Amino acid sequence: MEKNNAEKSDDALRDDAALVRQLQSIFKNISSEIPLFLFTEKGKDDVFCQVIREAVRAFRSLTDKIRFREYTLDHDSAKQWNVDSAPTLLIDPERYRIRWLGAPMGEEGRTFLETLILVGMGKSHLSEQSLKMVHRIEEERRIKVFVSATCPYCPQQAVNAVKAAIERPDRIFLEIIDIQVRPGLADAYDAHSVPMAFANDVLIGHGAQTEEVFISSLEKLEPQTLFIPEIDAAFVETDLVIVGGGPAGLTAGIYADRSGLKSVVIERGALGGQVATTPVVENYPGFTQVGGKTLVDILVSHALQYVRIFPGEEVLDIQPGTPIQVNTSRRRFSARAVLLATGAVHKKLGVPGEERLSGRGVSYCSTCDGPLFKGKAAVMVGGGNSAVTEALHLHHMGVSVTLVHRRDTLRAQEFLAGQLKENRIPILWNTEIQEILGNRRVEAVRLINNKTKKTQNFPVNGVFIAIGYTPAVELAKKIGVALTRDGYIRRDERHRTNIPGIYSAGDVEGGYKQIVTAAGQGAEAAMAIFEDLINPYWQRQDRRTGSQ
Ligand SMILES: Cc1cc2nc3c(=O)[nH]c(=O)nc-3n(C[C@H](O)[C@H](O)[C@H](O)COP(=O)(O)OP(=O)(O)OC[C@H]3O[C@@H](n4cnc5c(N)ncnc54)[C@H](O)[C@@H]3O)c2cc1C
């Protein structure tokens, strides 16, 4: 049956009374005084000042620990605490450097309540991981968190900052700024969509962040999107060690863990591998267009649901056996299998303009960037199978492509070379690129004929470079993994190398070098490893050959 209005207001009163009792019991555990100093200026923002007074009065009815003082801006205390604008509320300024430039209205009431409790308890209640990061901060951080009374996400971000300020009063100065009370300051920081957090005037967070992501952004002074828990253990025992945190390694981690194998991914550089340096990806299924960094964040967050990731750690040495020992720059791992997903890097020409115009007309991947040059002119540099295949690929996409090759014959298969002729793709023989020219984008290349020494400026919009890859096989070589003629890891159809328990996936195996193929190979390898670990193939072979 519907409740009438009188019954509804009785319910509300009962709820209020329960809330008051709950708050009283929380405040009972508070040991320290909570000094609050409000600075006001007559006739300025009186409404907001009144809200602060009333909020303080309401909380004082719950606890006798709050000590409240009000001063005008010309009082000596304003000078003592460097307060030059009103209203400003200082929260326990003898112990902490937290000030509120606004009034705890609406959603901000939650922030105010949590701040009073944390200050009263004198504890930040930061997580273990956050504590590690916040205590690594050596230089001062001046934080500004812009909030508004109507923003339900603001309290989370403001409380993150309050916790940091309580934990490190020696290094952290915090201002919580209400954009309605301080519109001028909000304008100066372009803070029109809250919450927005700055540290030392650098934007470190837009939107509410989890505590660890906020503290990590504060430590690094740049916005972080992910937090990867730090692991202190000097020794880690696991089923599978995956070397390389590119698409192959991360996908393998997801598949291995879902099969029931405890796995770790170890990455020495940027998580995401080559994708981390790719501005835009347009051929990964499910995304018509996605930033490389965004795709990495998605991949890493997904992988983190399953697998432990050890970033900034290099695998230095692998000792095959049962178990396999893996030594990194930080610790030792013991595992039943190791997956080498160490990737490859494309070779560079090493000419002026190449680095500067990379991603601005200079590309190492025609499959990835070719469509951007449809109807435009480009050169393809190289003379092997990759260069010729990619030149044909560009031609079929509608790019006016010219092959530039430093010799007088191609290294590519005859069939491919014939296709060049058939499609009337011009070739500049004995020609090398001396410089890539252009201001903001590629505009031309300076070419030299290495026989006649004649130079020319050749106008183009794109420079595609396919002069080979260098696979990351140092580790593989160290332990005697067999390589192909081109220097990639030699493996069977189940991604097994010649060393029992050592597998490979991704670009390090050669073949097509794409995100989707690397991810596919990572998935295949993980499933093969799972099947081999429950029924080891090397034991099956041993039984067949009768060896020990
Ligand atoms: C500029 C650029 C643009 C590209 N654009 C596209 C695109 O649009 N679409 C597409 O499909 N593909 C693209 N690619 C190719 C694609 O990025 C690769 O094919 C893919 O990243 C290969 O994945 P992987 O995991 O095999 O290797 P990688 O991505 O190379 O990752 C291997 C990882 O292993 C790590 N590692 C190596 N040795 C060790 C060690 N000893 N200890 C710890 N870590 C180690 C490396 O640091 C690296 O992060 C592009 C590549 C580049 C360079």
Spatial shape: elongated
Tally the helices: what do you get?
Answer: 16
The percent range for helix content is 25-40%
User: Which cofactor or ligand species appear?
Assistant: flavin-adenine dinucleotide
Based on secondary structure, the structural category is: alpha/beta
- Give the integer mean of the pLDDT values: 92
Low-confidence stretches: 542-548
The strand line-up of the biggest sheet is 2-1-3-4-6-5-7-8
Strand % is: 15-25%
Q: How much is the radius of gyration in Å?
A: 31 Å
The overall strand count is: 29
Biggest sheet overview = 8 strands, mixed
Distance between the termini: 80 Å
Task: Describe this structure as you would to a colleague.
With 548 residues, the chain is α/β, with parallel strands linked by helices. 33% of the residues lie in helices and 23% in strands. The strands form 7 sheets. It has an 8-stranded mixed sheet. Strands 14-11-10-18-29 form a 5-stranded parallel sheet, with helices on one face. Helix 13 links the parallel strand 22 (400-404) and strand 23 (427-428). The longest helix is centred in the first third of the chain and has 24 residues, at 5-28. The protein is elongated. The termini are far apart. The model is unreliable at 542-548 (pLDDT under 50). The structure holds flavin-adenine dinucleotide. Flavin-adenine dinucleotide binds at residues 243-249, 266-269, 273-275, 277-278, 281, 283, 314-315, 341-343, 346, 364-365, 368, 472, 475, 506-507, 513-516, 518.
